[in-house]
């Protein structure tokens, strides 16, 4: 590039080139780094510390020059960070909402003051985030901090929250700020690119007056650092944002330690960009150009174009891409990956749109569109890194939606059409977290980001995203434990032993209760059954010994019924649940008897439980059409919708306490929100659930929507965990069961709600009889996922 | 010079399929305005390019031969010679693209330019400028007379009544007739975008004008309340691109009205480069209709050359 500055006016006049934009010297960021001698330690207890003899890690800029090094944490650093955060939490918790809000508001103005430094440092560490976006985040969450006690009374913060991030500063702060605003203290484990900005932000937080220890930043080289932190008993929650592999490693390392975890795996998500024939094609192509060929993308994209406009789109892409310069790759190894994928695609008949031929070697690649691909092509299944965009075509708009949905990911989609009805219909049918209509990648904290399927199991942003950092004051937190050695592969495979009861009395043959699978009364697929014992040990009845195949049949039926149930109007769902309550009312005596025989409580108490169950079902029936999303204010003009949607099919391993009341509470929440559910009654007290099958059969609830399968808890847990259709598992059971689920439900990803029942009994578990609104709210929020729809207008 | 646009039959199906998403266009416009052009010689070169694309215009009731003469002289030497010389651009034929006057002043302009030995084209607005609310017969006659007086470029205004009521066939016929009346003179069709209501209508009117054989499409007369804005330009330029993709004919673009600063002229060039490519960065396919823009560009060039900001009286007036 030598001689670029010696170009004469006439030469430029002839070629009309742009010239290189002014080189950013990043002076303020450099001087900040200089002040820290270009070695940044941890930010713990309100100060920077860089202990001696630690490994260091170099942070490089886009030209691979080392700008700074960070220190890698050892075990003692983990300890000191956690105890700092625990102390920080006690201080932070004691402050009033107003005082916490004040800190966040102050942060917004501090960010404003240092915006130059922030933006330069983000740029330098290749994690470009604009300071205005961060200021918006700070202001948004300051108001939530202010309103916590007013709008969310009866909810308390978790305590110490570990936020681990591999994406960008925006996604990091989208977890850190709500955690802080709800009163938690936070330990940040930043990824390579967000390390420097995170450390700078920690310092700015101090300037804004945050008490020492409330925000800590620990850096390290290994993925296990977040896991190490979470294993500490003083940590209460772990949330991770990044790519799938790391998330999986973290989950497996933390399984069994009794820490709830959540994952936003946006980075490895593949999102469809759908252009319908009713679209403003030029604007759509502009959108493609803008998002697909950046050096660092938040998500991977796949372009889907309706066949009737395919040629027009391709022609426009060719025009717009002509003359685009090569994009530098994040690492040079990406180049090999791209070469392999592109070659394979070409062998399968794909044609390339490329602005220029790729340079023979090195970390540069021209913007490339691979045309004529099919969903089975490797480059569609896992698009390569770098500026390569796969393109597929579809026939009808319905097929476009199917194409977009047929993917293990569920992060976001961008759809382009001028037809409002089509836009709203497609937005509704796409099974993903965010739908951008005629726009893309718009982010604002007012709207939740809620990945589905492999893209995540938690909700960030919006009011909806605050609840991951809170729990109802009445609900106990998961007791801490240490993992046992479990053979994960063999979990639940031990066949339950059927014992022929001793002292068989021919005069009172115990009754056989069938289970409910696919809406029918059935024996177990294996044909085996097990005995239901009274607390004294006497055989009360026999029930099927259900297993993997029963779960499979139940799920199959549920997948068929659930979409129809979800599409029904909430008012219709409400009527069906009222009929269930009614049906329970008619059989109240049978149920009370079954509770009494099963748990040996007094008949009055059993009747009371039935009475409460009827009223609980009526609660859910009433709530069906009341819990709804909202229309948050988007940052630009236009409309935005945030709507709750059903998860799909849920698996529930029921608790033993209050066997009927807990069953209807969970069933009611799940079904009211439009889900289908496969329930496993507790091994100990299955009788009321089996009796309840009669109630279900006599109600208007569609056959197959609810299945009740009895059998070995571990075996059925294993079966539910290994069925990918099941989107969420609510579990009451053993410590080992919790550990198994945390370990195995990361791949494929599920939403877990775990309760260790053995220990809960000592710590007084969930109070099912309480009708506290926060407990109800917790339940229905567990039963939904959120979809954000952006419809910008002029 | 590239071949003229011969036009084509009126394809109403194409016109009816036009869709424009307003907010996406606005966003694109913001993006283009945020595009940075390098400083120093790049800026100077780009501004000189803008000068060569200017249709230096006077359209006032009090135009007389003397101010038209001044305008013509300024058009032939738009930047002070010594300034050009210090950039080594004095012998590169830097003039504006044309002068643009009312039909009655065409003869004056032609005379002035001839006397100065300049081949600079004279453009004339015609067809009941600016409202277009006169009978078709007189509008056609106006075109013919301007051509007869020596205008080689005619800026016609479209009949907004026809565009607003969706009578595309009638509009097509009118423009066709204007094109015939123009004979060899290049025809620039003014859409008066400020009065067309929606972006979709702007796109449709652009297509119909091009189908009828316009050599240029032009945003506005400069007399409406909304003049040349970047979002509207993006819509029109996309129509040009669409027309080029389908027919292979290249049609030029002329924003006019309210373009006053050197900075804006650079944004206009960026818009053309981004949307249509380098080929459209040329007076054959791109014009800027302006009167006071030139003065600002000359001041900026003065600043680039000398490092000082000039007073207005230091630069020759138009």
From TrEMBL, chain A:
InterPro entries in alphabetical order: Ald_DH/histidinol_DH, Ald_DH_C, Ald_DH_N, Aldehyde_DH_dom
Listed Pfam families: Aldedh
Domain Aldehyde dehydrogenase: 57-471, 535-755
GO terms of molecular function: oxidoreductase activity, acting on the aldehyde or oxo group of donors, NAD or NADP as acceptor
Domain of life assignment: Eukaryota
UniProt-recorded name of the protein: Aldehyde dehydrogenase domain-containing protein
Lineage: Eukaryota, Metazoa, Chordata, Craniata, Vertebrata
UniProtKB/TrEMBL annotation, chain B:
Superkingdom of origin: Eukaryota
Enzyme class, spelled out: lyase
Active site residues according to the UniProt entry: 218 (schiff-base intermediate with acetaldehyde), 254 (proton donor/acceptor)
GO biological process terms on file: carbohydrate catabolic process; deoxyribonucleotide catabolic process
Localization in the cell: Cytoplasmic granule; Nucleus
Single GO cellular component term: cytoplasm
Name of this protein: Deoxyribose-phosphate aldolase
